[in-house]
Amino acid sequence: MLTTDEITEIFYLCDDFSKEFDKSYKKHILVAESDKKTRNKPNRLSHSEVMTILITFHLGGFRNLKHYYVFYVKQHLNGEFPRLVSYNRFVELQQQAVFPLVIFLKLCRMGQCTGISFVDSTTIKACHIKREKMNKVFSGIATKGKGTLGWFFGFKLHLIINDKGEILSFVITQGNVDDREPLQYESFIEKVSGKLYADRGYISQTLRDILFVDGIHFVTKMRNNMKGGEIPLQDRIYLRKRAIIETVNDELKNICQIEHTRHRSFTNFISNLVAGLLAYSFLPKKPSINVEFVEDFSIDPKTGKFKLLERLKS
After folding, report:
1. What does the pLDDT look like over 101-120, one tens digit per residue?
2. How far apart are the first and last CA of the chain?
3. Which of 61, 247, 303, 313 could disulfide-link to 287, CB 3.0 to 4.6 Å?
4. Do the Cβ atoms of 160 and 119 come closer than 8 Å?
5. Is residue 180 a contact partner of residue 164, using CB atoms and an 8 Å limit?
């Protein structure tokens, strides 16, 4: 459970962003020419307050947003949010806050590329695979796909992280989209440079050539029937450390709760997913790896002479 100081800190960050966002948004909004007057009355709950409630929900250990809002926020956080509305009205405001949530995540809460990055995808189930034909919320949007654990109905979340566990980029696709396809999107890899590590599912010589033109060295494991040079020691070590992104996916699902099957609209699905990614960025400790070169002098058993060995210490 978050403390009051932690909630206040998250609100200050959201509020500072929301003020700048509103200024920029009003400059680019199109106003229809009409003699009819329109109301522009501000909502009781501001965008920053709605964003704060959504982010703290994903960090508070609650499984249900309605229970969190009705039995915790309205009963214990009246001092922090003095102008609370009904839950039905909050759901409407949640949909209006989707765009600010995405911009806040993209511009303010992404990590910095360190030259070592990892890419992977994880499934986001919309419902149980046996109820796919009865699902009306995501009818025509979600698709049937196959992951490592079998068939599912929903979407895929594609992530690129650095060696500190920080999210560099993300893309949401339908469940039947190939994992390699988002890496061809310029917007997905624009913040990535240096080496990008992936599993065998991403093996593609065409993709490797495309990324090389963009200044990215794409490294994957080799299949048994593939011919080519041996992978350098440094790359082999980092490929073993690729499990860090699996840990990030696990924390997103089990701590930040980006996946559940109770959605009643696609907009709320997006707001729940983005708020979960934002909540992950506020975690005080993220999965990370620490790998460095160590020079070691040893005796060659064949020649009996000293030789310099470079090994990796993790």
Report:
1. 999 999 999 999 999 999 99
2. 33
3. 247
4. yes
5. no
